[in-house]
Fold these 4 entries.
Entry 1:
Amino acid sequence: MAKIFEQDLFQGGRLNGGYVQSQLPSYDNLLAFIQDTDSPAFLGIDGRSPITHSELGSFVRETFQSLKTQHNLGHGSRIAILIPTGAELPVLLLACLAHFLCVPLNAASPPDEIRSSLRIVGAQAVLVQKGAYDKALSAIARELSIRLVEVVPSKFTAGLIKDDFSAKMESHEAATEQSQNLNGPKDVALVLFTSGTTGFKKLVPTLVEDVVVGVVCLAAAWGLTSQDRGCNFMPLHHVGGIFRNVLAPVFTGGSMVCMGSFDPNQFWDTIVAQSCTWYYGVPVMHKLIVKSALDRRVTSAQVAGIRMVVNSAETLLPSTARDLQQTFTQAAILPCYAMTECMPITSPPKGYALDRPGSVGQ
């Protein structure tokens, strides 16, 4: 499926979702987009080995199947995710998107907000990290009769989960048979709340085929390849983080370094040590990154590998864009526009040189 990026998906210099969809080879489920390579997929910053694309595919295809058996969950089950940001979260997001109706939530939300969200979406189970949730969530789960499914991160591989769900599949044939229950192109795989900027938060369901087209459009617009490595410090309960920082690297065979939270000094340590080539953030984060660069006296050699800085969620002021350009001297600064209901909407071409400041979304 990676060969889709070897063909020209543009029409008159533009990407059109309908045309991109017409050019996609036939596929049964999201497993078709996970490459069978030993190159890193998701990396942590805690010294553990990265999970490879092959290991990621095996986890989604086989190990995660056992969760269905032990907890009596099946196709269409609504599974909420309340996992701390890190390498495990994107892996679990991808697995849930492939198997269930995935409902990512903000693990840092107040208990009342979590209760309300779980009730509204009708969650049947919640994925939580063992030792990383409190009694309030346990009480909410009992109140709403929702299963809490504990996951335990591997001590050795960032992103991998210890297989504590149940016994492993007895054979490859069994795993293949169960994979028929994976979400197909016409199945709803993702349900997200809008940000509520126009009033009450709304629920937005997204089909697998819409996820695929959106991610392919993003990756094609940015020219992402297996040589690219991003740096994630964004929350992953919004469509932007999921499409850009989880799925785009997987589809293209690239990689993503997963920070636990945003810290501008840790960001600089990470992108230099891990040889990152791009990152996505919001304006307030960009400003802190620029300020930290000045404080640390970051050199042009340290940022030479960054070829792309992506902005979304809020308007990128022309002054902030210029500051970013002066900091990341070899990078294209890309102000993008999207909504939960439509991801993506617009993105400048990868060679954009800030020649139309303030025009994003117009």
Entry 2:
Amino acid sequence: MSNNATLFLVFLTISAFLSSFIEGAQLILVNNCEESIWPGILGGGGQVTPKNGGFHMGSGEETIIDVPDKWSGRIWGRQGCTFDQNGKGSCQTGDCNAGSLTCQGTGGVPPATVVEMTLGSSSSPLHFYDVSLVDGFNLPVSMKPIGGGVGCGVAACEVDLNVCCPSALEVKRDGRVVGCKSACLAMQSAKYCCTGEYANPKACKPTLFANLFKAICPKAYSYAFDDSSSLNKLNESKSLLSSSAAERSSSDMKADCFDPIF
């Protein structure tokens, strides 16, 4: 399969929907890719992890997941996975739990595009959600509220950043770019990771790489302190989060690309 054909297959991909119901919420995951995806799920500290943290979704499939009130956690898509009958194997990106179908309380290996959320309750329906590129990028993701609500916004990275990934950040499998590292993952320094003396918004500023991510995906977190333009909140007891994927060709994307030098 050619490189461009593979890139086109990931323009429409996994989305997370949120709708309130009594004593909890529903997350509806939809795979709009033309290839399989293996979602990974991780509950926050002390939170449940639905479906043992991972499962398979074929192209066009939809899965509904029930979570309790005030649930927090993250969801990411794994791609290029192969598992045996015991659920052991590996993925090209987003792998977890030493190569297992079920992540079971472990996070994904970056780079991976991550959906993060902290949900409210039926009595206090204030939900926070975002799409983060802090751990890098592997698949386009869109998360959009439907049905009203005050202050609702779209959280998304709807285009294929792998097309524009600077050479220093590329992750390749079989000669094809399957992921794009964050600057933190590539450089492993406090300046790029917003740690140590840089662990505050005044000291940690967006880098050239974060600016590239932001220019192409303005509705996603591009670095650790990108809260003002990327963290969304939904104050509504009945709502739905759905996908809104934008299609752009590889040639369109390349017009926006640049390759910053360290």
Entry 3:
Amino acid sequence: MLPKELLAEVRKIEIKTRHLVDSVYAGGYRSVFKGRGIEFAGIREYYRGDEFRAIDWKVTARTGDLHVREHIEERELQVVVALDLSASMAFGSGLREKRETAVEFGAAMTLAAARNNDRVGICLFTDQVEKFIPPAKGPTHNLRLIRELLYFLPAHQQSDVRPALSFLNRSLGRRSVVFLVTDAIDLPPMERELRISAARHDLILVTVRDRREEEIPDIGLVEIEDPETGEEFLWDTAVPAVREGFQRTEQEARARLMALCRRLGIDVIALTAGESVIDPICRLFAARERRQAGIAGGGGGLGARSAAAASPSGRPGGRDSP
């Protein structure tokens, strides 16, 4: 029997994400995420108009009549939500922490995958893998995933996406849709693991930020503690150069991150603590659909794998850009 508190949380998440789940079930989810490829379906006699390259010459030689090999696209997806649970994810300058926003996203994608009868799993990590539940199906499995997303307590504080990516590259036996959910924006040192993961899987980076991490207000002397290392800093936010230096450092880190993702062909969803998780997801879906339509129409699609084209601001994910 599931605790009443868990059922209540699941119900709240279902209500919040119903629009997303209904939208992706109507076509967006299936159209922007591909299955694992082409599967052999059987052999039949050749009909006029069949592709010449589809002819099975062995069967043709054995029977004396032209035969072709038929294939179908395998549409079942395998989805993994890899979620950063380091101490910095507990930060929130408003009513909600970054972790709460990240968990809502993870739960939404879990329910969307379940609605589409796809296999889904989670990988919870800090600077090491804290918990891995392999992709599977079923109501009991899906509720277990949401329970762990909501209540799991990590043993470590610091963050490093490399062990999690390396673990998933070893553990996932087939191509998967991997959502890497983290508040880390200084990812270039992890380029090797990102490059390998992007080649093996449909890797999507989901950044989670708080507004106060992008711009510090003028509130005088502030003592700041790094939640992951415990190191303390004293900043005089009344000094414009201090605020400008902080903002410039953040902007440069985001620019490096986006350049790396463009180079590796990694899509980005940008979430902001306390704000909607649905809108950034829908923007990414729209960008992918446009890119796929451009490729199908011979136009080449979008130049970079980001949600920029779906955003009025032109930034990946619009105003929620990492």
Entry 4:
Amino acid sequence: MCSRTNAQIAELRNVYQQMYKSSLEKDLIGETSGHFKRLLVSLCNGGRDESMQTDTLRANQ
């Protein structure tokens, strides 16, 4: 999921729901733990900023 766009992640969630009759997020929460769980659930939400603008001041920090 790390290399997928928000739209691709949304499609992944929809296909997962159709195939397994269960929420991807719910299953990730139930089957993983700790920091890995937090990472996967965050990625599953697909709320990443996809703009191509870079804040150079922030990047230099």
